[in-house]
Specification:
This protein has four domains: 195 residues, Rossmann fold (3-Layer(aba) Sandwich), CATH 3.40.50; 191 residues, Rossmann fold (3-Layer(aba) Sandwich); 109 residues, Winged helix-like DNA-binding domain superfamily/Winged helix DNA-binding domain (Arc Repressor Mutant, subunit A, Orthogonal Bundle); 194 residues, HRDC domain (DNA polymerase, domain 1), CATH 1.10.150. Helix 18 packs across helix 20, helix 22 crosses helix 26 and helix 31 crosses helix 33. With 727 residues, the protein is α/β, with parallel strands linked by helices. It is globular. The chain starts with 11 loop residues before the first helix and ends with a helix. It binds adenosine-5'-diphosphate and magnesium ion.
Length: 727
Amino acid sequence: MEAKITKNDLPVFDTLKKVFGFQSFRPNQEEIIRSILGGKDVLAVMPTGGGKSLCYQLPAKLMDGTAVVISPLISLMKDQVDAAVENGISAAFVNSSLAKEETAAVFRRLRNNSIELLYIAPERFAMPNFIETLKGVRISLFAIDEAHCISEWGHDFRPDYLSLSNIAKTFPEAPLAAFTATATRKVQDDVIAKLGLREPFTVRASFNRQNLFYRVKSKRELASQIMEVLKKHAGEPGIIYRTTRDSVDGLSGFLSGQGIKALPYHAGLEQEERKANQEAFSKDEVHVIVATIAFGMGIDKSNVRFVIHADLPKNIESYYQETGRAGRDGEPADCVLFFGREDIPKIRYFIDRISDDTERDIALKKLNQMVRYASHNVCRRKQVLEYFGEGYANKNCGACDICTGKVEKVDITTEAQIFMSAMSRTGQRFGIMHIIDIITGADTKRIRELGHDKIKTFGAGKDRDKNHWRFIADELLAQDVIYQDGGAYPVLKITDMGKTILFGKEKVSALKREEISKKPRKGKRSGFEEYDKALFERLRALRKRLADEQQVPPYIVFSDKTLHEMCRRHPSALPEMASISGVGDAKLERYGNEFIEEIKTYLEENPDISIQENRFPDIPSERSGKPKGETFEKTYELFKQGLSIGKIAKARSLAESTITSHIEQMIMDGRDIDIDRLIDPAKRDEIGKLFLKLGSWQLNPVIEHFKGTVSYEEAKVVRAYMRWNNG
Ligand code: ADP
Ligand code: MG
């Protein structure tokens, strides 16, 4: 086709330089622009930050008439128009936010053919008057931004977009260019069909975002892990995604308490507040926005330097979309995913509720791909690109934790065989916890009743502790040697690959990864002199009450400095409390327990706040699985003798809640605790399902739900069990 007559002869490159100030095109921009100038329809699938706007703004400047851009987001139109006007393009928009007179003024300019670039909202096309007006105007091109909104298969379907299917028929002369960052073929084909694109010039840009660094970290002490990332990006804008509204509010509050300028964003907030928060973020008035996935399309902010996922996304598509919001300006940006296996059953819970079989299977498959992304030792970039059907040949991408990390390979074939043998000899009908109980020779009632102490692998791995076996289980899961099947308490099954290993035909090794940090490693706790202000307020109130009771000034009880340290280190037992500066024996005895209880309650109410590992280097770590002071050992001994929690409490003259917290900790430490003795399996199952449904580990909602039939103790035990088993 002949090129449309241009109103000036500025060649394409000159316009790029003079109007937009850019030295060169980004990949595919030039081809797209030349197609539009040649009157051809276009379908451009380009990643976020790929530079789609330029592809229609440049032709708008070059071609005679008005370029009509349909864009779904009113909130962005003004920014885009302002930016275009800044570049000397005669641009305007029409949407519901304009007053009547303003709209009339735009229409006048339109009829005078004095608008080069007109942004409109899709619902305008459902208005016959508007189409009549357009018919009287010379149109250079139509551009459909976020074109995937026309597809029911996409994630942002907008019924308004369906009215756009008339454009090609009503305005057959003008080229129609559709732009989207949604990469699936199904959506792509749907867009072509629905818009009636006429043999469009189709480009699928590479989805490789070279400036994004992908990293996955095990989710352990989330709050301090996030703080670490924020420290690296101090004062820089970033987004933190969380799954639930509560966790968004919790984390946002926590960060604010740490002196970070952060705001929440989720669908539960009033629209006004949401808008204000987004605006504050856009304008760099706050640095961090903590959000659910409701926060997305409306952000054109180009200087987002990091995107953190504090919870597992449900598939790679979503992950790619959300991380795509980082580094639109092409400058380096970080994408960090905190991966904890406890997130998997939460997503599975929702997937299990999809009624359509095919849809459910697809969702499950996608979740598995996401888990693989996070847990396999394969270049992250390669995995993302392969997901979108794009190969990646480079051996080392140079910008993901896998490619830049140090890897040590250890053979775990024998351990894998022991593990699978225990599974196989028990009919592949048990979960991780039980299999590890067998391997480590645990003496539990359940094992005896089932006769699992008689099988050959019973105790075959007792030279290593449970945490080691948990590591083996994770590796085998990650490498598809075994898999989890079922809902709240999944059972383990052996895959075909697993069978070849079990029968000695293949070997399996685990990769131990170590990130090589560019800067010399700092001491673990250095620099963390902030403290949790919300917790501080609570401890201060407690201090006031205790001081009033004693009729002494509060600083006599504890100084501020002491409370600050408690807020940082979260002591959970007397020996820990004793190591806080300012806590002597007398005060330890008089106030220790009350402060410990207050901190515990606070942490339970705010599950997002996690405590720092090794925060008491001189006291045995909680995760070592080793005895943790005499008091735990005594509880453990009595429990092993068959005493109930109530009896142990009596025998030791301690509160039942204290004994429960010992038991809870021991479950988390992977010690032999026969859970069936503590809670009836059917009841455990019910409580477990509720935790998953609620998507949080908070106790109160669970207690409330069961209206007094479930105690805190029971809920705590189930929670610990689930965390260990699924986490
Ligand atoms: P998309 O809509 O594809 O997500 P945008 O059109 O918003 O991307 O462009 C992202 C950023 O890249 C913008 O800041 C834009 O000014 C910039 N950009 C676009 N094309 C170029 C180019 N050829 N050279 C330099 N920067 C560009
Ligand atoms: Mg865009």
